[in-house]
Each structure stands twice: as C-alpha cells, then as structure tokens.
Design a protein that fits this description.
By secondary structure, the protein is mostly helical. The chain contains three helices and no strands. The protein has helices spanning 3-52, 58-97, 102-134. Helix 1 (3-52) runs antiparallel to helix 2 (58-97) and helix 1 runs parallel beside helix 3 (102-134). The chain is rod-shaped, with a radius of gyration of 22 Å.
Length: 139
C-alpha cells in the first residue's frame, strides 16, 4: 500500500466519522425538540386541568384528555424513533473507531431508555391529575 492510499484511507475514515457524529448531533437535536414539545403540551394540559378541569362536562373532559393522550403518544413515538436511530448511529461510530469503550455506547442508551420510562410516567400522572381535579375526594 502506498503512502497516498494510506492517507486516502485515513481521510475517508475520518470523513465517515465526522458524518456519523454530525448525524448523531442532528438526532439529539430532534430528540431534545421532541422532549421540549412534550413538556410544553404537558404543562399546558396541567394548567388547563387546574383552572378549568372541574368545570368541564364529562364529555368535554374525555375529548380533551383523549386528544391530549393521542398527541403525547405520537410525540413519544417520534422521540423513541429518533432515539433508536441515534443509538444505531452511536454503534456505527463505535464500530468505525474500533473502540472497545463500552461505557460510551451505554450512555445514550441509558438516556433513551430513561426517557421512555419517565415521559410515559409523566403522561399518566398528568391524566391522573386531570381526573382527580374533576372528582376531588370529600374530606
């Protein structure tokens, strides 16, 4: 192998790494935007539940909660899809680097799995809050 071929191979591998890292950054941006959207809608729902939840009729509350639930499930699906793509890209970068560092690949995986546990929990808690505001316990 000539020096030119070695340099060309090194440059192409560096460009592959740079492209993969850029794609990871894009996916992380999309995931963070999805989380921001999820949280904005969640807090809007909580504010609406607190201020007008008790005054809504049953059908109105069901429609409001149903639309909220569908929107949030769609958002969670988008976040999880992009999270899976990000995990695949991280695995590709580790493969390109020939890295044996296990922890670097586990950090994004832990974040994605943690988000997929925390965000649905927040969704369930917000729905519980809405219906507990509608039906307060008499002391």
């Amino acid at each position: 192998m000539t020096e030119y071929e070695i340099a060309d191979l090194a440059l192409s591998k560096a460009m592959q790494l740079q492209g993969a890292v850029s794609q990871i950054q894009v996916q992380m941006g999309i995931v963070s935007d999805g989380i921001q959207l999820f949280m904005a809608v969640l807090f809007g729902f909580l504010a609406a539940a607190y201020f007008i939840g008790a005054q809504l009729e049953r059908l109105q509350a069901l429609i409001f909660s149903g639309l909220y639930l569908l929107w949030q499930i769609w958002t969670l699906g988008a976040i999880s899809t992009r999270g899976v793509v990000m995990l695949e890209l991280v695995a590709n970068v580790a493969e390109l680097r020939g890295s044996s560092e296990v922890w670097s690949a586990n950090v994004p995986q832990s974040l994605v799995v943690g988000l997929m546990l925390i965000l649905p929990g927040a969704l369930c808690a917000s729905l519980y809050f809405m219906w507990s505001v509608r039906h307060p316990k008499k002391a």
